[in-house]
Amino acid sequence: MALRQLALDLFTVRGWCTLGAGALLVFCAFLFGRHELMAVGVCLVVLAILSWVLTSKLRGSTQIQRELVSAEPSVGDVVRIRLGATDPALIQEKLPEEFGRGPVLNAPGSCDYELLFGTRGIHQIGPAQQIITDSLGLIRGMVDVGDSLNVPVRSRLIDLQRIANLGEQVLVGEARASQSSTADYYDVAIRDYQQGDSIRQVHWKASARQGKLMVRQENHVATARALLILDTQAEHWCRTGADLHLVIPQGTQEDLASSPRFETALSLVSALGLRFAGNGFDLSFRDLSGTPLVSDGIASGSQESALSNFDTFHAATATLALTPNIQSSQGTELLGSELYKDLLDSRDEPVIMVLGELTVTQARWLAGLARTVRRVDLYFILTHPERYEAVQQELSRTGWNIHWLPATSGVRQMRGE
Length: 417
What we know:
By secondary structure, the chain is of the alpha/beta class.
């Protein structure tokens, strides 16, 4: 390591022998007073040092270009990267340790290579290394050249085709029904007059057009919305020895800690979010405290807006981290006060929860929400689902769609393998 820091590792065996022979001749010249030995020894030492200086310090600068050809990669996607240089040089790409030795480029020119990332995060590619050598064979090695490239890799998008989740007809029908509300050119939705409505709510122009009394629904936004809740508490995903610890790289920043169960949950949330967004739902992503995982986009009711909102969340999964515990695991209320208010406001909208673990007391409290929040899909990813019979009994009376996924095979089941 000391030689590498001083770039002395560039000397080959021949180079070290030349340098050592020169030093030995200089030492012998002092002992025996032989000037010719001194001259030869100094020449050998100077030759080795001069080759090292010219090769490593005075070499021409090499411009490296690196381009990410595959846009917005996710875990499991093939990522193509293009490496190029305009000056004559022999370049070897430096990859993360799990990929081993990188490709070699004989510049000028460019080459494409492919990588398959197994974890999300910010993966650092480079800096590249230039292979340098001299004509005498005294120097040969690699020196860093160019800048690094940070490749953001999003969470895996799994196929939900074979998993029993939300019925496709219900999902599509709900989106269409929410988006087909009648609205006038002032974006004020209207509906038929019902007994008890105030006369001041009557929309006279619409009533004249329809031939019957129509009333305004002011401040109503004709759009389909859904609330997606992801449990990000570290305690719920890294509790026992069965929860292996994963490292999520963040480029030059400190790595994030995770577990296979949480990565499965994040993949599930991403897949469900894509399905809802593809059907026109504007999504709100929250953790258990009610804190937005990403800022909510503008609810326009269009499929393009919904997909853009989901894409913002999916891009953020590259840096999404587990959070410290917001409350004791033995607490009664599982959800924070802000999220509780959001749920009450979403009583007729789809709610999807992906949770790690909860106690019987928390399950009983959560089941109490079924009286007001009716359209809930609840996913549990557990290491030992058979240990949660009491929790299952508490939630079985809610009428919600509840899915118990074992952590060891949850992804395989969701992918239909």
